[in-house]
Amino acid sequence: MGDVMRHILLSGISNQVLKELEHNKVKTIEIRSPHNFLSALETDAGDVIFLTSTTQEDVRPGTTGIIAKIREKQISMHRVVARNNEFHEEAEFQLARLQLEIKGHGRVRRAECCALGEATVVEADEVLFFEGR
Asked: In this predicted structure, what is the pLDDT of residue 87?
């Protein structure tokens, strides 16, 4: 068992993305959802974060996920324009791009949730992960 560490949480990450991170060891992910975007804003390159496919509301002690280090972080603004005969609409959205490097697997010990507009933080134990063959 590793030490208990506090990590900013990214929740509701697709299983596909988590599998690719496990397999490739390094993966860049794009974050658009508001709760994860707020969490990403509070991170810096070099930080170690906790990613799980579990939705934010359902994260509790025992929730498993991946512990990963942020290698690079970019925040960008995108403008989307929608047009048809009747109207012209512009929307802007912010996107966070994080290049992650897997460190290991973890299990949540305690979730500190989350004033509105703040990152969710979890305390997690690193777990050694053995896949049955």
From this structure: 86
CATH number for the region 4-127 comes to: 2.30.130.40
**Which 8-state DSSP code applies to residue 25?**
S
Q: What is the DSSP string of 102-122?
A: EEEEEEEEEEE---TTS--EE
Query: Can you tell me the distance from the alpha carbon of 53 to that of 30, in angstroms, rounded to the nearest whole number?
Result: 15
Tokens of 12: 């509701």
Q: What would the pLDDT profile of 1-17 be if each residue is shown by its tens digit?
A: 456 689 999 999 999 99
Cα–Cα distance measured from residue 88 to residue 92, given in angstroms and rounded to the nearest whole number = 14
pTM, to two decimals: 0.84
Domain regions of the chain by residue span: 4-127
